[in-house]
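If it is no trouble, might I ask you for a protein's amino acid sequence along with its C-alpha cells?
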Amino acid sequence: MALKVAVQMDHISTINIAGDSAFAMMLEAQSRGHELYHYTPDRLALRGEEVFCALEPVEVRDQKGSHFTLGSRTRMDMREMDVVLMRQDPPFDLSYIAATHILEKIHPETLVVNDPAEVRNAPEKLFVTDFPDLMPPTLITKDRAEIDLFREEYGDIVMKPLFGHGGAAVFRITKDDLNYGSLYDFFDATFREPWVIQQFLPNVKHGDKRILLVDGEFAGAVNRVPAEGDLRSNMVRGGAPTDSDLTEREREICARLGPSLKEKGLILVGIDVIDGMLTEINVTAPTGIRAIRNLGGPDVAAMVWEVLEGKVQA
C-alpha cells in the first residue's frame, strides 16, 4: 500500500545527507513505493480546523550534490496525507511550538511522527528529568545562588542552554574556574529560559552514546567520541562515530524508558548516555540512523517504516 508522506524539514537543499536521519527515512520511504512531499514549517496554514500547506513532490537520491528533485508546489489539505514526518531541526522555540499546535489538528487521523502534542510536552532536556535516578546530578535554573550551591557541592560542572541543540554553547566549568562569573553573565544576557547545570562526567572522553529506540524498543546505537581538545561529542562538532554494543546498564535504561515512549506516541527517539548516565531524551529530530547503518549496524529507517505502515494500515 503506497502512502502519501509529507516531510516537514529544514529545506532539503541545506541538509548534510551523510548524517541526516530525515533523509535516511525519506530514502527508505521512497524505496517502499511511498509518495514523498517536501515542505518547510513556515508554509503551514490553519483555517478553523483545516490545515493547508504548499507541498512539493520530491524525489531523493543518495548522491552528494544531487540528492533531490522537487516538483511544483501545490496547495493541499494536509488531511490528504497518510503520514507527516515532523523533522525540522531545533531550536525548540515558539515557531516550533506553533507548528506542533497546527499539526495536532490533523493527528492521529493523519499520523504525525512524533506525536506533536507529546513533542511539545517533552523538551529533551526536561523530559529526561522524569527519570532522575538514571541521570547525573542535574539542576534546571538560571538563579545564581542555586548554581553556586550546586557548584560548591559538585565542583566540576557543565552548563548548557535548556533548549540548545547540536552541542552549541556547552561549557565545562571547573571548581576554581575564573571564567564562571563571565560565563554566567553571558548566559543571563543570551538565554531567557533556565539553563541545565550538570555534574561533569570525566568519562565523556570515552564517548557519548546515542541510542535509538523505535516504538519503545531498542533499535541501534553509536558511540560518539569527542575530538581532541573538545568537550562535545556531537558529530556535527567533530565527534567520531564508533560502533557499540549496549551495556547491561544501558539496556536497563532502555527498558525503563520504553513503555513511556510508546504510550506517548514517540516512535523515533534518540537517548544520550555517558558512562551509564542518561543525559538527554531527543524527541524532535534525533540523529544517528545513518551512522549506525554505516558502521554495519541495523537499518533503523526500515524499522521505523515497518512501525508506521502497521499503524496506518491498522
